[in-house]
Amino acid sequence: MRIGFNYTLGDTAPLVRRLLDSGRIDYVELLIDNFLSVPPEEMAQGFGAPVGFHIMFSKFIENDDAALDSMAIRLRRLIDLLKPLYVSDHIARFNHEGRQLYHLAEIDYITDYEQVRCRVDWWQQKLGCRLHLENYPSIMDGGRDAPHFHERLHRDTGAGVLFDVSNAVCAHLNCGLPLEAWEGIIERSSHFHVAGYNLSILAPHLVVDTHDRMLSEETLGFLERYRARFNTAGSTMTYERDDNFVETEIEHDLDRLRDLFDRSSVEAFDAPRV
Ligand SMILES: [Fe+2]
Fold first, then answer.
1. How far is the CA of 136 from the centre of ligand 1 (A)?
2. Residue 194 CA, ligand 1 centroid: distance in Å
3. Ligand 1 centre distance from Cα of residue 240 (Å)
4. Which segments of the protein form a coiled coil according to its record (predicted)?
C-alpha cells in the first residue's frame, strides 16, 4: 500500500516535503485544478515524488462542453507528462436551477443515472484515461442508493471508484447505510481516501467531511476489518487534511496507517497456500 497526502495550497508545501523526507508518505495527491496554470515542466519537477490527480471543479456533469474541452487539453498535457497514479473526479451538483451552490450537493442516484453515465463516458474520452469517481459523504436517505449506482456505473463505463473510507463512515452515521454495502466496491478498488470528520455547527447535527482532525475510531475500525482488501498490489491511500494542520496529529495518523497496512502485508505473505 502506498500512503499519500493531499496538496491543495502553497502553504502546506513544507509540511508535504517533511512527510516525504521522513518516509511517512510515498506520493502526493494534487488538487490539480489549482495548478493548471503552472507550466507543466515546473510541475514535473514538483516534489520529486509520484503524484495522484484529484479534479475538484471540472463540474463535468453540468459544465458546458467548451469549458471542459479547454480544461481537458491542459489536463491531458499534465497526465502525459506526470503519469499520475490515478485521475479522480467528483460526482456532484454544483448548481441548482441556475444558482451556484455554496457546497457541492449529492445527486439523485436513480433519476440522474443516465445523464451521469453519458457524461462520464464523454469526460473519460476527453481526458483519454480511466476516471476514479469519489463516493459522497451522504446526508440524505438517497445516499443509500450510492453503492449500487457506483457498481452500475463501473459496469457501463469502466470508471473506477476512488473509495473514501471516511465518507462511507459519514454516510453510515447520517443515513444508516451499512459499511458492508461497499464490499463489492472495495474489492474492485485500488485507490482510497481517508480523513477526519466532525459534527455540523447547526442542528440537527450531521456528520460532515471536514478534513480538519484525526481519524475517528469508527474509521480506524473499518480500515482494520477490511485491511487485507484495501491492501492490494498498486493500491494507494491518501490521507486528506485541509485545515488545522497539527503536524504531530498528522504524523500519528500516518504512522497508524503505515502500521496497519504493513501488518496486513505480513499476514498476506504468511497466509497458507491452498
Ligand atoms: Fe475524499
1. 8
2. 6
3. 7
4. none
Give residue-wise pLDDT tens across range 11-34. Answer: 999 999 999 999 999 999 999 999
Mean pLDDT by 10 residues, the chain (274 residues): 94 96 97 92 90 95 94 95 96 85 87 97 97 95 95 97 98 96 96 96 88 96 96 96 96 97 69 48
Ligand 1 geometric centre to CA of 193 (Å): 5
For the chain, give percent helix, strand, coil, nearest 5: 45, 20, 35
DSSP string, 61-93: TTS-HHHHHHHHHHHHHHHHHH--S-EEEE--E
The burial class, CB within 10 Å (0-12 / 13-18 / 19+), for 142 is middle
Cβ neighbours around 245 below 10 Å, total? 12
Backbone angles phi, psi at 136, to 5 degrees: -90, 145
Tell me the residue type at 88: S
Q: How far, in Å, CA of 41 to CA of 34, rounded?
A: 16
CA 68 to centroid of ligand 1, rounded, Å: 22
* DSSP secondary structure letters along 183-225: HHHHHH--EEEEE--EE-SSSSP-EE----SPPPHHHHHHHHH
For residue 78, report the distance from its CA to the centre of ligand 1, in Å.
Answer: 21
Distance 102 CA to ligand 1 centre (A): 18
Query: How wide is the angle at C-alpha 190 spanned by C-alphas 188 and 192, nearest 5°?
Result: 115
Do the Cβ atoms of 13 and 7 come closer than 8 Å? Answer: yes
